[in-house]
Amino acid sequence: MKKSTFYVLALLFSLLVSSCGASKQTVSRPEEALNWKLGAQSYTFRLFTLAEALDKIDSCGLRYVEAFPGQTVGAGNSEKFNYTLSSEGKALVKKLVKEKGMTLYAFGVTGGKDAAEWEQIFAFAKEMGIQVITCEPREEHLDIVSALCEKYNVRAAIHNHPNPSHYWDPEVVLDALKGRSAKMGAAVDVGHWMRSGLDPVACLKKLEGHIIHSHFKDLNGFGDKKAHDVHWGTGKLPIREVVAELKRQKFSGMLSAEYEYNWENNKDDVRTSVANFRELLKE
């Protein structure tokens, strides 16, 4: 065989292997075709360090992370993940995330006590490459948050905890967004809507055009604040209708798995939920 022919065949084989690998990755993460960033809220693994949480998130086949304030960094660092992190702490977190091939996409749920603290939160997010801050601002802080979104080019997503928290009703979120930065939106928690007795699909429709982030879960009950997480697709969440509505709205953002049950050993619960979700998207 001529040397030139050998090189051509070797190149073709290399391209074929590369193509097969890319195709496999697309099949394993069908959400990417929708520009959905399926990841996890590190609060799911709140009993562990952030470093350990990253290991668990990685083992679930996820590449996007939402970090919560107050989690110990780990990997030899005893600091809490927050805007108060030292330069060394920030560098370590960036290193840990990069080594896993992950993206630190969101941070929260957090908030500031005044304008100065809000500024520190946004500056921290910008430095860490965080794109979305999930928050529940006081009414009097909404204009502060709006201005900081524009200043730092970081999005702020208003999160809903269950009734009687301030933002439990989508109408309250809509009022909060009126006349404010287009970089502000909603971080919709479908599970908390269920706990509040609200129809998740109807709530999504109310917030159309404003949804930029989601805490995703399925629960074993509806209208019950004691309802707990179950594997996605096996509970009371109308998951097919929720997915269809997000598709219809052309949602583009992070779906953050937040599994708040079986705290000591819920990694397999997240992995199963993610597998169920991806199978659903393939249907």
Report on the structure:
It holds the Pfam family AP_endonuc_2. InterPro entries: IolE/XylAMocC-like, Xyl_isomerase-like_sf, Xyl_isomerase-like_TIM-brl. One of its GO terms (molecular function) is isomerase activity. Residues 55-279 form the Xylose isomerase-like TIM barrel domain. This protein is α/β, with parallel strands linked by helices. It has two domains: 1-29; 35-282, TIM Barrel, CATH 3.20.20. Helices cover 43% and strands 17% of the residues. It has helices spanning 3-28, 50-59, 87-99, 115-128, 142-152, 170-177, 190-195, 200-206, 239-248, 267-282; strands at 37-41, 64-67, 72-74, 77-80, 103-110, 132-135, 155-159, 184-189, 211-216, 254-257. It has an eight-stranded parallel β-barrel with strand order 1-2-5-6-7-8-9-10, surrounded by four helices. The protein has a two-stranded antiparallel ribbon with strand order 3-4. Helix 4 (115-128) runs parallel beside helix 5 (142-152) and helix 8 runs parallel beside helix 9 (239-248). It starts with a helix and ends with a helix.
Notable features of this structure?
283 residues; alpha/beta; TIM Barrel; two-stranded antiparallel ribbon; 10 helices; 43% helix; globular; Xyl_isomerase-like_sf; IolE/XylAMocC-like; isomerase activity; signal; Xyl_isomerase-like_TIM-brl
CATH superfamily of the largest domain: Divalent-metal-dependent TIM barrel enzymes
Main β sheet profile: 8 strands, parallel, barrel
Q: Please count the helical segments.
A: 10
Secondary-structure content class: alpha/beta
Strand order of the largest sheet: 1-2-5-6-7-8-9-10
Gross CATH architecture of the largest domain: Alpha-Beta Barrel
Domain count, please report it.
Answer: 2
Kindly state the percentage of residues in helix.
Answer: 40-55%
> Which regions have little confidence, pLDDT < 50, spanning 5+ residues?
4-13, 15-27
CATH class of the largest domain: Alpha Beta
**Rounded average pLDDT:** 93
Report the β-strand fraction as a percent range: 15-25%
Number of strands: 10
Shape designation = globular
Spatial gap, N to C terminus: 47 Å
